[in-house]
Amino acid sequence: MKYLMLTYQDLVFLVPKGWKPSDPRPKKFMVFFNNKYEAEDACLFLRSRVSRKAQEYIKWFYASMSTFYRSEEIKLFKTGESQYGLELTDVGGMVSSFQHISDRNCTNLAQRIDLPDIQIIVQWKVPTDLNTLMQRFGHGVRNPSLMGITILITEPWYFYDEHQKSVRRRAGHK
Fold it and tell me: Which end of the chain is more exposed for a tag (fewer CB within 10 A), N or C?
């Protein structure tokens, strides 16, 4: 993470500044967050980078939204007709858990979340456990004819050098 967390500047590579629907399409992406507030804030930031008409192509998506809304948004995202980016919490990363639930709506939703052409998967900040990270990264390209990338944007304090700087600052050294 190069910039302050609250600015979401580290996500600018996902959508070109000033992008509009008549421009070449950016690669489809999903950004996973550890809470819905960050998903919304990041989505609003990315929308601020594109034309007003293109703002509807970037959506946030999480479990407390209605089943109908989630189903419709997944359909739109799957076809690529009106969406290129989703900012998600665990609802997008819980596909394998959904598949074990007997509720037909959950199973159907899980099948619709299986998207073959997501070329960029980003995890914003370290998740609570490695299983969550692997499950989220597993949503990347499932079409063997495409290539994809997964990115973990990590808080600075997880790196040894940054941790050492912090220790020195607390001790009063430069």
Answer: C
